Amino acid sequence: MHHAQNLIICEHCDSVYQKRKLLRGQVADCTVCGAVLERHQWIGVDGQFALIVASLIVFVIANVSPIVTLKLSGMAEDTTLWGAVIAMWNDGAQIVAVLTALTLFFFPLSQLMIFAWVLWFARDGRRAPGFAEAMTALVRVKPWSMIEVFMLGTLVAVVKAHTYFDVVPGAGIWAFGFLTVLITVFSSHDARHLWDVTGDAKA
Ligand SMILES: [Zn+2]
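That is the input. Now the predicted structure with zinc ion docked in place:
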């Protein structure tokens, strides 16, 4: 850590402050415009990296395991996320199929991969190649990664389908649930601190 540049600038009104050490749960606000300057980081870089690796493993499990098993008159059918996407596509709901694949697979996966890339280097206090682009991409991708919305949708669908079928939640749904928790914990973090913990001299 360099103590020379112990200043923090408000992103909204450009006021400059002396940085202070924050305690658990503390948030520093701009006294001029009220914007959040900084949050206390309660998980270190190593901890965040471990969290991302765990999320990637759970992500794989979530995508290959059946989300639900439908049972109707003695027959049982498993549905994975990809099975559902293909079924929607074949049903003429191509737009929904593409949106589902993007918001539940491609965006969350790129979010996790970019974080893993940046954190891998940040563990040694280094900036990953393409660090600035990666940090910008994370801000852009975040609103499109909608696993929480999917969780709610699936729960509603499971409850509704229960009227007609015997619906058994599969391992995939638990994995997605766990992933929601992991991503929520992770998102409560301010990714901007990665600028501070990595040095700019070494690329
Ligand atoms: Zn301000």
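The chain has two domains: 1-40, 43-197.
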